[in-house]
Amino acid sequence: CDWSSDVCSSDLGGYGNYDRKGFELGIKTAMSYNFPITIAGPKNNENWFSSNPWVKGYPKLSVVYDLPNEQLRQLYTSHTIFLHPSELEAGHPNLTILEAAACGLPVLGWIEEETFFGGMWRAPRNLQHMLTGMEDILNKYDSYRIHALEHARSLSWLNRTKELIKIYERYTN
Prior knowledge:
Blueprint: H1 23-33, E1 37-41, H2 46-50, E2 61-65, H3 69-77, E3 82-84, H4 95-102, E4 107-109, E5 120-122, H5 127-139, H6 141-154, H7 157-172
Parallel strand pairs: 1-2, 3-4, 4-5
Helix pairs in contact: 1-5, 4-6
């Protein structure tokens, strides 16, 4: 990818070495601030890390695979900001963003334009945008945290169930 341009292009989807998750953007963002970064995900992400050995040179990087839900929740609550520069995800919003927000993490990353997500700084897949977003979140951290928690609560299973019941009642009456 050319990090000075607005777009990273390469093969998409099933290509194991293509960085659809935005690992490089996340790591470079953390490196720019000398912040620690933990990347958690499925074991198949190892394909990208093994084909990009430069990441092992950043001593503040931790990579963990296949965490059980309780350990994943502990990981979220022990961190400060959730980086999500991914470009190809399912769910609207993606479940990992929602889980992070529910743990009070402001989110820096990408989500489709038509989806609003409180507590998120929408950064196109470009390092400069990620750095600008990081600066804004750091300067307004409490506000981003509050909005992330509020948005996650609004999307809770309880609230979604209430909405479904209303829809059901409207169509069954």
